[in-house]
Amino acid sequence: MTEPLVPNSNIRLRKQLLGLQPVVRFGALLVIVLLQACATVANPDPRDPLESWNRGVFGFNDAVDRAVVKPVAIVYRDVLPHWVRTGVGNFFNNLEDFWSGVNNALQMRGLDTADSLGRVVINTTMGLGGLLDVASEMNMERHPANFGLTLGRWGMSPGPFIVIPFLGSSTLRDSAAMSIDIAGNPVRRVDDDGVRNGLTLLNLVDTRAAYLKAGEVVEEAALDKYSFTRDAFLQRRRNQVYDGNPPDESAEPDPSLAP
Asked: What is the pLDDT of residues 201-259, one digit of tens each?
């Protein structure tokens, strides 16, 4: 006796999901992770009123990192000689120094501005386009700064902590400044799409490779990786705004409020 021809809904569902475009499946995974996280956090940190959502995005980013970014960074570290990776890092640091000089000027920091722009001139001319860090050998320090830090030094509150898909930890203030920072990145001025995208990808992989050991420390030391990463980011950012000498937090406005 033959079985009735009843459609198997589970099989059909699997086929439909497999037929979806990768971007749609990626979005569906993100939504599932976020919904699961929303049910796990009852009392968020006052600095992190969006903790349920942020934990979901953090889990999504961590999954992408483990599956794609970290393995590529490990291969990059293991295959390329140290001197090549050092040259790549110096090149992108040189580009960053230019934007740091602009922001240090906006913050009215004369010495930091002179150091940042002086580094660009010296490393670009004497350092083979920035591949060699000649300026550091001349005791010219780096003073990294972006527009989010500029807003902070102008007195703008950081607002709530935010985790951005693919980009990671941020605050409302830094997220608002991100479009300005992207526009100020010299790589964005490259006309050729292939070269621009290649440089962006190379910078991502090189940066991730530089933090491989730090990531291992976090994995071993942190009972709650999300809380550890959030607290470290907020503390570091606060120290940057106040030049390593932040005031008593009780004297500041509620950081959960929008700037």
From this structure: 999 999 999 999 888 888 887 689 999 999 999 999 999 999 988 887 655 555 444 44
Per-residue three-class SS string for the chain = CCCCCCCCHHHHHHHHHHHCCHHHHHHHHHHHHHHHHHCCCCCCCCCCCCHHHHHHHHHHHHHHHHHHHHHHHHHHHHHCCHHHHHHHHHHHHHHHHHHHHHHHHHCCCHHHHHHHHHHHHHHHHCCCCCCCCHHHHCCCCCCCCCHHHHHHHCCCCCCCEEEECCCEEEEHHHHHHHHHHHHHCHHHHCCCHHHHHHHHHHHHHHHHHHCHHHHHHHHHHCCCHHHHHHHHHHHHHHHHHCCCCCCCHHHCCCCCCCC
**For position 223, what pLDDT does the model report?**
81
- In angstroms, how far is CA 186 from the centroid of its own chain? 18
- Long-range CB contacts (< 8 A, 24+ apart) of 135-141? 140/115, 141/115
Q: How far is CA 19 from the centre of its chain?
A: 32
Burial label for 85, CB within 10 Å (0-12, 13-18, 19+), is middle
